[in-house]
């Protein structure tokens, strides 16, 4: 004769039910708005990409030349750093258009006269990434040549 199957303990039953309810809520949330076309409400709130922390972060691609088809610049290589953590923190965590321009001018001085550096910039916003610049301005236009005493920070 076979032994009777053990039933779920009350605690396991609560855990399983909670997992199923939460999993269903996670799956139905995006469907509610995107597939069924309903507006966000209390039970299925609107998803927000950045609330406070991510708003001060910018994603940047530097290009050597006009247009987005021009080759991308490897910032670490041009400035002579082997690893990202060797760079000063304000170089690998850009927070504003001003800091993007500052690093771009630094690249111009390092690359020498005749260099053309343009920045493709997106900064964090509560609804997602917002484009700030589309590589329209040559950051090297008003940059002086590096002096002999200028060193890498």
Structure commentary:
By secondary structure, the chain is an alpha+beta fold. The chain folds into two domains: 9-44; 54-134, no CATH class. The protein contains four helices and three strands, in the order H-E-H-H-H-E-E. The chain has helices at 10-35, 75-79, 89-92, 97-111; strands at residues 58-64, 117-125, 128-134. The chain has a three-stranded antiparallel β-sheet with strand order 1-2-3, with helices on one face. It is elongated, with a radius of gyration of 26 Å. The model has no long low-confidence stretch (mean pLDDT 79).
Query: Helices and strands, in N-to-C order?
Result: HEHHHEE
Structural class: alpha+beta
Strand content: 15-25%
Whole-number total of structural domains: 2
Assign a percent range to the helix content: 25-40%
Shape: elongated
Task: State the oligomer.
Answer: single chain
- Give the neighbour order of strands across the main sheet: 1-2-3
Q: What do the pLDDT scores average to?
A: 79
């Amino acid at each position: 004769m076979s032994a009777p199957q053990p039933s779920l303990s009350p605690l396991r039953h609560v855990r399983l039910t909670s997992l199923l309810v939460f999993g269903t809520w996670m799956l139905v949330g995006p469907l509610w708005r995107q597939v069924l076309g309903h507006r966000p409400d209390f039970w299925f709130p609107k998803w927000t990409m950045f609330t406070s922390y991510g708003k001060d972060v910018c994603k940047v691609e530097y290009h050597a030349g006009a247009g987005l088809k021009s080759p991308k610049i490897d910032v670490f290589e041009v400035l002579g750093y082997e690893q990202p953590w060797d760079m000063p923190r304000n170089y690998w965590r850009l927070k504003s258009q001003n800091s993007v321009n500052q690093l771009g001018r630094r690249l111009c001085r390092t690359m020498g006269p005749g260099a053309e550096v343009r920045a493709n910039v997106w900064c964090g916003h509560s609804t997602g990434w917002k484009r700030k610049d589309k590589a329209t301005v040559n950051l090297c236009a008003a940059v002086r040549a590096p002096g002999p005493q200028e060193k890498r920070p």
